[in-house]
Amino acid sequence: MKLKHYIVAMSAAVMLVGTGLTIAQTPQETAVKKLVEPRLADGIKVDSVTKTPYAGLYEVRVGSEVLYTDEKAQYLFIGNVIDAKNGVNYTKARTDDLSRVKFSDLPLESALKMVKGDGKRVIAVFEDPNCGYCKRLRKTLAGMDNITVYTFMYNILSEDSAVKSKNIWCSADRNKAWEDWMLNGKAAAPAQSNCVTPNDKILALGQKLRVNGTPAIFFADGSRVPGALDAKGLEEKFASLHNVKVN
């Protein structure tokens, strides 16, 4: 695949979103940005260029994606920078940081809420009602305790996803309707036409947060994990957050 085509595909996948922040750059970083931006695909805008402490590389940030170049922008490096001594993946650490959210800013009133046990362990999950991996995750969550799950019904997989979400949202017991569908394949009764849902709001939110697939799990520290974790993976993640300050 040609480099320009790769960058187009990459940027389309992450859905570029401005952060509203202005980051001061050194003259050299500004110069590298001016050199590298015209060499990317047409219309691709570089959010920032930052000199890294390794190998003389400059980080080129496009949305939440990261690539690298040299000081003359003659070469572009797409992939992970890993410390050969300790195995630390600097690129993953950086992209994880860029993809963090402020959990308290999520519109939780627009989500389904399930509480089990003391509910102290909190996650928010973006799920499509037609997503097989979401159903697998739902089975995992059903077997866990002491957890609060906020579910944003994120309709991106098929035309009737929004219909199914509306029927569930407009049910007398939303959580039961969601569980019945995701765990047992029992569809909710058709909603009345005047029932208002947050479907459009959640779709816009997911796009803003660059949620490109379901499920997507957000933890209380703002970190995210794309895909369906199993029970062991979730427990390990919760354990790692035990002493982390929630933002």
Task: Describe the protein's architecture and organization.
With 247 residues, the protein is an alpha+beta fold. It has two domains: 3-98, Disulphide bond isomerase, DsbC/G, N-terminal (Nuclear Transport Factor 2, Chain: A, Roll), CATH 3.10.450; 103-240, 3-Layer(aba) Sandwich (Glutaredoxin), CATH 3.40.30.10. It is 33% helix and 17% strand. It has eight helices and nine strands. The strands form two sheets. The chain has a five-stranded mixed β-sheet. Strands 1-2-3-4 form a four-stranded antiparallel β-sheet, sandwiched between helices. A hairpin with a 6-residue loop joins strand 3 and strand 4. The two termini are 40 Å apart. 26% of the residues are buried.
Give the tags.
DiS-bond_isomerase_DsbC/G_N_sf; 247 residues; Thioredoxin-like_fold; Thiol:disulfide interchange protein; alpha+beta; disulfide bond; 2 domains; 8 helices; 17% strand; redox-active center; disordered N terminus; 5-stranded mixed beta sheet; Nuclear Transport Factor 2, Chain: A
